[in-house]
Amino acid sequence: MARAVRGLSRGGRRGPGAGRARGAGVVALAALPIAFLGVLFAWPVVAILRLGVTDGEVSRALAQAQTWDLAAFTLGQAAASTAVAVLAGMPVAFLLARVRLRGAGWVRTFLLVPFVLPTVVVGLAFKALWPGGGVATIVLANAFFNVAVVARTVGGLWAHLDRRAEDAARSLGASPWQAFRTVTLPALAPALASSAAVVFLFCSTSFGVVLMLGGGRYRTLETEIYLRTVELLDLSGAAALSLVQLAAVVLALVVGGVARRRRERAAPLRAPVTTARRPAGREWWVVGAALTVVAGLLVPILALVVRSLSTRDGWGFDGYRALAGSGDGALSVTGWEAALNSLRTAFDATVLAMIVGVLAAVALVAAGRARGRAARLAGETLDAALMLPLGVSAVTVGFGYLVTLDALPGDLRTSPMLVPLAQALVVVPLVIRMVLPVLRSVDDRLRQAAATLGAAPVRVWWTVDVPLAARSLAAAAAFGYVVALGEFGATSFLARPEAPTLPVAINELISRPGELNTQLAYAACTLLMLVTAGVAAVIDRLRAPHVGEF
């Protein structure tokens, strides 16, 4: 590690030796993330996909109308959810970036709560509002998750835009809408495209929401892969559908990556150049729309709390009292034991994800600063590859573990570390997206100055990079922890019956008959929601302003 950091710290030397040292440092730092991605993602996924290829199932699946119906519904509901999230997120982005209003800081913090809520919690919240489910409910639930992505990503860039350009257009006779459309909107296009691509990716791979609200009538590629793998044991058919899903995911990642690079170049780390001010005139309509969206996001959360206190005999705390029991025999452990299992596995997953994610971010920064085109291309390829776990079916990855990991020493298939490894695979891309923009914003001249004053390479990194990125590192750790805490897709497939996590326990409870089981599930959801809300508040206080994503 010291040699790798030494190679990255010699920014002031321009000879061939310095270039080779920098290249060696990049390779050394990238070794662990590449190994992590290869063993825990590429190997299991390729092993499962080969089933579909070798059995000839891909051609048969592509020839079936059902496959294209599933793909059409998956992409259609994802596109509709993305459109709703963008339309709802834009006025909130304006509120965060341009408006000085009492309570705006709390709005920013609250927006993060829906994004980090576990999918089973959101599914139950919307089920409490609309018990019948349906397409509209699925679209609204997915949009509920992702309004924060649009509002915070677009708002972060919007705060950096110079307001004088828009004022100049107004002085030349343009209406407020014309000034926004011709001046502000083109400047926001990179952030808007990036956030829309990320939202589309999340919605197209949505699992828990569709599983709970689809009611068996509506299935996406993700839920169909789960059905064929777990219930029908049709591994070849599931592998074929995974290939179709992977193609859509790669396209979304390419679009998002291009837009993200444009945004990072457009908005380097600095204080916002505009000062928020009180809205005037028609701006109040936009503020009103933003506050309406925020109030709408609060409705499912309140519905969940109300449902957790509602019993056949009126109001009561039966579900919360049942957390100390086993849910009327539905679970092999108590609700509190399931919660402790979640806390332990989330901690292990976060530690692993932070190690891999920070090393990957440092390597990507070094590759981006390298002079050679090959090094920059390798960095961009690694960046895209590390995002793939967000878009590949968690069921595919989970079953791939059971197929392949027996070849490793110790047989990880029976290890309690299997669930944290799967959760870390999901958390690593999010850690990178939060840390990478901050590390890229650090002026390399600061490192050179510290080295000139005699600081050793490791001390340069410790005294320059770490203090500047400390808040984002802490926020990334907290964010990763809460995401791992609520991870449901892979965990539902890998968790052992005697050690379920809380989201897995909630799903099991809601699928079993009995009023007490239902009450316990809603009480557990409320508890999980309160924990994630608390962590979301910590994240927002720790993060550097207007930096990173989500």
From TrEMBL:
SUPFAM superfamilies: MetI-like (SSF161098). It comes from the Bacteria. The keyword Thylakoid does not apply. It is found in: Cell inner membrane; Cell membrane. GO terms for biological process: transmembrane transport. One of its GO terms (cellular component) is plasma membrane. It is a multi-pass membrane protein. InterPro entries: MetI-like, MetI-like_sf. It holds the Pfam family BPD_transp_1. Residues 1-20 are annotated as: Disordered. The chain crosses the membrane at residues 21-43, 78-97, 109-130, 136-161, 182-215, 235-259, 284-306, 349-370, 382-405, 417-439, 460-484, 520-539. Keywords: Cell inner membrane, Cell membrane, Membrane, Transmembrane, Transmembrane helix, Transport. Residues 71-254, 339-539 form the ABC transmembrane type-1 domain. Belongs to the binding-protein-dependent transport system permease family. PANTHER family: INNER MEMBRANE ABC TRANSPORTER PERMEASE PROTEIN YDCV. This is Thiamine transport system permease protein. It comes from Prauserella sediminis.
